[in-house]
Protein: 2-isopropylmalate synthase
Amino acid sequence: MVASSPQAMAEAVRQFYLQQSGIQLWYARRPLPGAAASPAYDFSEPEPEASIEPEEAPPPPASGKAAGRLAALQGMVSGKPDEPAASEQPKAEPSKSVARNPVPPAEAPQPVAPAVTAEPETPANDAGSGAPDAVKANWGIWVGSGAVLVSELSSEASSQLQEALASNILKALHMSVEDQFRIQWPVFRNPQVPGGDSAGLERVLASQQDRLKGRPVILLGVAGELAESVRQDYVSRVWKSIAVDSEHSLATLATDPNAKRSLWQALKAQVLAS
Structure:
């Protein structure tokens, strides 16, 4: 019997267990275009080991009583005195059969991956940069004649309702809407894509400063997912002049009269009074 290579043995083991699991294997009849050459596997089945058959046990000798009666009968026929019976012989037990079933070849040991030491996670706020790692933004921006309104937009509320409420807030401040646009960030869902961090969002906002025209900003529910200490530093760096900073977005103001009343008091004190 020719010893198989480790690859052939591993392939035989894999086929054996897949067959036991009811999984049918398929192989390409011809090489696939552009595919790497496959190693030469040995698909022959391993030969089972020869089983040891039990040998026929010899007939057991006569017991002590039967041997005594036979000796007495022979003595009567021959006229000789009875001879003492032969000592009893212990019964010979039949040899136990040892049958060995063919055992599938042992699976080749798999390489053990080296242990990876867990490194501490990087905190969301890097002390060196002073900016959070990632900021999610779905902001609507309305540029009024005297102020800029920036609000977090909700996908659960009507877009027309949020736009109408933003226009009504600026009209209540005696301002008209001169420009309107929307910013969604990050652009790609994969966080590993370069430029998808908060620094990238700051660059996008910096490129729109000409459209904001340096006017005071009214923030409604912007960057509410950040911690308060991180958020204050972030919004003050992104927007240089903040007139009102409210935690309630347009969607919340549309359903909460108390939040709307609180915002109006802040607008009268900070925007209309200036």
Q: What stands out?
A: Residues 58 and 243 are 112 Å apart (CA to CA). Residues 84-88, 114-129 have pLDDT under 50 and may be disordered. DSSP finds eight helices and five strands in the chain.
